[in-house]
Design goal:
111 residues, 2 helices, rod-shaped
């Protein structure tokens, strides 16, 4: 395979990796949004049950903790996805670079 074909293959592989990463990122964001909407609906449905200020404060505290935990989980999932894809991209680039260096390295001549 000539150098141009190798670079074309690397570009294609990186494009596919990035396209899959974006697709997964959008899926994570959609799940996070869906979870946030469900959380809001759940807590707003419980709001009419609150009869006093301590009950309201307790409900608000529980809501805040739920939202915070959901946001942390979503950010961790995004971070894991990015870390995984950056590792794969690094492997692709290193593999292409090493293959190019090996191809360009002159072979020692037999005596």
């Amino acid at each position: 395979m000539n150098p141009f074909e190798k670079q074309l293959q690397l570009g294609r592989e990186l494009f596919e990796l990035n396209a899959n990463a974006w697709r997964q990122m959008v899926e994570l964001d959609a799940d996070s949004f869906r979870t946030m909407v469900e959380t809001n609906q759940s807590f707003f449905a419980r709001l009419p049950e609150v009869k006093d200020l301590p009950g309201f404060v307790s409900l608000q505290r529980e809501y805040g903790e739920t939202v915070w935990n959901g946001a942390q989980e979503a950010l961790k999932a995004r971070g894991d996805l990015l870390r995984e894809n950056m590792g794969k991209a690094g492997e692709l680039v290193r593999g292409a670079f090493e293959a190019t260096v090996e191809a360009d390295t002159p072979k020692p001549e037999a005596a």
